[in-house]
Amino acid sequence: MIDYVLKNKWFLIFLGYTIFIIYGTTIPFRFSTDADTIQRNLDKLFIFFDESHSVLSNPGSDMVANILFFIPFGLFLFNLLYYEKERKLHLGTILFITLSGFILSTLVETIQIFSPRRTASVPDVITNTFGTLIGSGFGYYLYKNRHFHRIHDFIENRLKNPIIILMMVYSLFIFFIGLAPFNFNISPRFVSLRILHLKLIEDAFIEKPSNLFSIIFIFGPGGYIFTQYFTKILSQKHLLKSAVLAVFFGSLLCVFVEAGQLFVNSRSFSGSDVLSGITGVLYGTITYLFFHQEKFTTTSVGRKKKYYYLFIFFIINYVIFVVYKYLYPFHFVNNIAMIDNKLDFFLFNILSYAPSNRLRTLSLLTIKNIALFVPLGLISRELCEHFTVFKTRLSLAIITGFFVMAIKLLQIINQNQIPLLFDFFGITIGVLIGYYIWKEIRDFFVRVFPDKKTQTLETR
Questions:
Q1: How far are the Cα atoms of 56, 188, 209 from residue 195, in angstroms, in the given order?
Q2: What angle do CA 119, 125, 130 make, to 5 degrees?
Q3: By three-state DSSP, how is residue 178 classified?
Q4: Fewer Cβ within 10 Å of end Cβ, the chain: N or C?
Q5: Percentage of the chain surpassing pLDDT 70?
Q6: Residue 86: which region, alpha, beta or left (left: phi > 0; alpha: psi -120 to 50)?
Q7: Shared domain check, 149 and 6
C-alpha cells in the first residue's frame, strides 16, 4: 500500500485537493429538492453582491478567497500532466486545465442550488476559473523557464525519504483537523472581531478529553516525528539540539494552525488549544529522548527492550485516552432503575443518537469511532504476531471484545455518558482496518525509525 501511494503520489495529491474543494464548497451537506429553495438560489445566480448574505456581504474578500482556493488546483493538475506526459507540455495545456477548473466550479455551484445553506453564483464560477488559470499559468511560466524541472526533481528526491513523507502527511493532518470545516472568512471586519475576542486559557484544561487527545495522539506524535527528522539531519550526537528544534517547529505548527482558525467561521482561536499542543510536542520529544538513550540503541538486548517498552507505552497512552473519552467525567451511579433505563436505551435504540435519524450525524459518529479504534486493531495484530500467548485469533478476539464491552458497560453506569449500540458498527470497522493494514504501517515505520542495525545493513 505504501509503495502504491509513493508511485501514484502526484495523482493522489491532485485527487485529494479536488475532493477537498468539493467538500469545502458543499458543507454542511444539507440538500433539498424544495421548489422554493431552488428558486431562491436560482434568483441569486447572477447577483454579484447581496448584502443579505453573510458571505457575499464582503465581495472583495470572497472573490480573493475563491481565486486562492483554485490556484493550487491549477498548479497540481499542471504538475500531474507534466509527470504523466513525460515533461512535454505546450500552451494548450493551460486552456485544458482552465477548462477543467471551469467544469469543477460549475459542478459545485450546481450542487449548491439544492442547498438551503449555500448560494450558487455565476461570479463564483468566474473567480474560481480565474484562480485555476493563474495556477496553471504560473506552472507553465516555471516550465518554460526550466525552473519547474528543478523544483519537480527536488521534490521527487525529497519524497524518497520516508521521514519527510511522514512529516508532510502529519502536517496536512494537523491542518485538516485544525481548520475543518474550511468555511473561511477573510474579511478584515470579521478577523478584527475575532482578534478582539480571543479566548484565554481555561482552568483545568488537562481534564478535558479533547485536550488530552491533542497531547497524546495529535501533537505528541508530532514531537516524536520532528525529533527523528532533525536527528537524522544533525546525527545522533546532537540529540539535544534536535529536540530543541523539534519543540520549536512543532510549537510553531501548533500556533500557526490555531491562528488559521481566526479565518474560519465555525472555529475560534483558543489559548488552551495552543497550550495543549505545545505540551503534546514536548511530550513526544521527551518520549523520543527517553527511548533513544544509548542503552536502548547500542545492543540487540537494548533494542529488544526498546521495542517492548515502546509498545507498552503506546498501549498505556491509548487506554488512558479511550477511558477518558468514553468515561469522563467519572460520575458513576448505583441507582438500579437508572441503570436499567440506560441498558434498555443501549439495546433497543440503535439510531437514537441522531434525534431525526440524520445520515450526516450517524456518519460522523461512525467516522469518529473508526478513527478511535484503528489503533486497537494495530495493537491486536502486533500482539498476535509477536507474542506467543496471543497467537490464536480467537484469544485475541476475546481480549479485544472484552476491552470494548468493559468500556460500554462502564458507560451504562456513568451518569454523564450515553451508551450506543450503533457505536459497535464504527468500532468493528476501525479494529478490522487496523488489523489488516498492520503490516504496511509497521514496515513504513521501520523505514522511518530504523535502529542502528538496520542503518548499518542499508549502508552496506
A1: 22, 10, 26
A2: 140
A3: helix
A4: C
A5: 72
A6: left
A7: yes
pLDDT tens-place string over residues 287-344: 888 887 776 666 666 677 777 788 888 888 888 878 877 777 777 777 777 777 777 7
Interatomic CA distance for residues 211 and 270, integer angstroms:
11
- Residue 402 grid cell: 472484552
Task: Cell 495493537: give the residue.
Answer: 379
Q: What whole-number distance in Å separates Cα of residue 227 and Cα of residue 233?
A: 10
Q: Which three cell numbers stand for residue 176?
A: 485538516
| Residue ending a domain, choose from 132, 160, 188 | 160
Instruction: Look at the chain and count its residues.
Output: 460
281: in domain: yes
Burial class (CB in 10 A: 0-12, 13-18, 19+), 119: buried
Mapping DSSP to helix (H, G, I), strand (E, B) and coil, where does residue 255 land? helix
Residue 302 DSSP label: H
Give dist(CA 74, CA 126) in Å, integer: 14
Residue 199, classed as helix, strand or coil, is strand
